[in-house]
Amino acid sequence: MRLLRSTDLALRVLMRLAVSGGTTPTTRDVAAAMEVPYTHAAKVVAELQHMALLEARRGRGGGLVLTEKGRTASVGAVVRAFEGDGDVVDCEGATPCPLNSGCRLRGALRQAQEAFFASLDPITVADIVTSPTGPLLLGISARA
Question: For the whole model, what pTM was predicted?
Fold first, then answer.
């Protein structure tokens, strides 16, 4: 399974903010540090803010701040939110699969997808920034 770019970026934004050490980077700072377009980062930040995982403060001294809910958020829940409930394959798309009525692959892929999410459920954002990841993130952030 391959994650959407927005899912990957959402996880990296949360990780970056989890090790911010009191600094409040802006969306532009995060986009530059992660080498992604500002507009893409802004959409992801808006969704994370809507999920109450981070706060975006405006004005002088503003920036992005990870909330406690964001720090304890399940990686599986974040991935589910960004990936959606769709199937791994589109059996009923513009050209429906002729095997659709009797195919067992779709169910097997759905089961594998759920196992993937379930394996991420017990892992929190705080868990994924423990050493050595956290110090590496700080090093990357310092260069940006």
Answer: 0.84
